[in-house]
Design a protein that fits this description.
Number of helices: 10
Order of helices and strands: EHEHEHEEHEHEHHHEHHE
Strand content: 5-15%
Number of domains: 1
Radius of gyration: 18 Å
Oligomer: single chain
Largest sheet: 7 strands, parallel
Structural class: alpha/beta
Strand order of the largest sheet: 3-2-1-4-6-7-8
Number of strands: 9
CATH superfamily: NAD(P)-binding Rossmann-like Domain
Distance between the termini: 29 Å
CATH class: Alpha Beta
CATH topology: Rossmann fold
CATH architecture: 3-Layer(aba) Sandwich
Length: 270
């Protein structure tokens, strides 16, 4: 029986790279994204089955899972990859907070509600969330993104702690700077995100592929993120002081008024 997977946020970036890698390895893949046109291109290139739609809604997730089971017969791995940022702090509106939480957290919850009972009956399954290094550290300049990615990690941890003895593998991909459209539009945050090496979406897909042979919870395309996470836990005040120094640098940043990507919400497709 061939291996099967669902990848959300697959029209570009990390999601597209993961779907492409899986297809190259002979997997049957269902891809989902809001951008129906780009998603159709990915499907044509990979042989994947495209399910355009909004996976931040209950109806969108339900349609995706039901279509995937109808198309594939079973789902071995679900990549909850779609995500958004706002590039806002306290100025983020309630609607922007709600959208970030719906996309970056509740989409995972809704998928798990539908998938875990089927996986328990089948004897196992794997949920892989793209949580970002922001889910382990923080994202200066984007409160909704940082908070929702922390919540995504917390939910993934809860799932793993609750179901791992019953065959459910849960993993969190936590890259730092990845050359995607989101990074291109990150404005002042770009310098922060590129302090360490910037990796390609294909590099992250390679890390995700290697992780399929293991059950490690964290998948770290940037290994140094693990060190930062340990420092944060061991010395929280020193870590926060260092982050505040970075914030002070951001405070002095002057955006380029000719750059159309400096201040707008970004679809991560992480």
């Amino acid at each position: 029986m061939p291996d099967t997977a669902v990848v959300t946020g697959a029209a570009r970036g990390i999601g597209r790279a993961i779907a492409t890698r899986l297809a190259r390895e002979g997997w049957q893949v269902v891809v989902a994204d809001l951008d129906a046109d780009e998603l159709a291109v990915v499907a044509a290139e990979t042989g994947a089955h495209a399910v355009p739609g909004d996976t931040s809604t209950d109806a969108g997730v339900r349609r995706l899972v039901e279509t995937a089971y109808g198309q594939l017969g079973h789902v071995d791995v679900f990549y909850a990859n779609a995500g958004i940022g706002t590039l806002k702090g306290l100025d983020a509106s309630d609607a922007e907070w709600a959208r970030a939480l719906e996309t970056n957290v509740l989409a995972h919850v809704r998928a798990a509600r539908l998938l875990v009972p089927r996986w328990l009956e089948a004897g196992g399954g794997r949920l892989v969330v793209t949580a970002s290094a922001a889910g382990l550290l923080t994202m200066l300049g984007d409160a909704p993104y940082s908070v929702s990615k922390h919540a995504a990690v917390a939910f993934a941890e809860w799932l793993s702690a609750t179901y791992r003895h019953r065959g459910i593998v849960v993993q969190a991909i936590c890259p730092q700077g990845v050359q995607t459209r989101m990074l291109d539009g990150s404005g002042a945050l770009r310098d922060l995100l590129t302090r360490d090496d910037v990796v390609s979406a294909d590099d992250v897909a390679d890390a995700a592929w290697r992780a399929l042979s293991r059950e490690d919870f964290y998948v770290l395309p940037h290994p140094e993120v693990g060190g930062y996470h340990a420092q944060r836990a061991a010395h929280p005040d020193a870590w926060l002081a260092g982050m505040n120094r970075l914030q002070q640098k951001l405070d002095s940043y002057t955006p380029d008024p000719t750059d159309p990507t400096s201040h707008h919400q970004q679809q991560e497709n992480a």
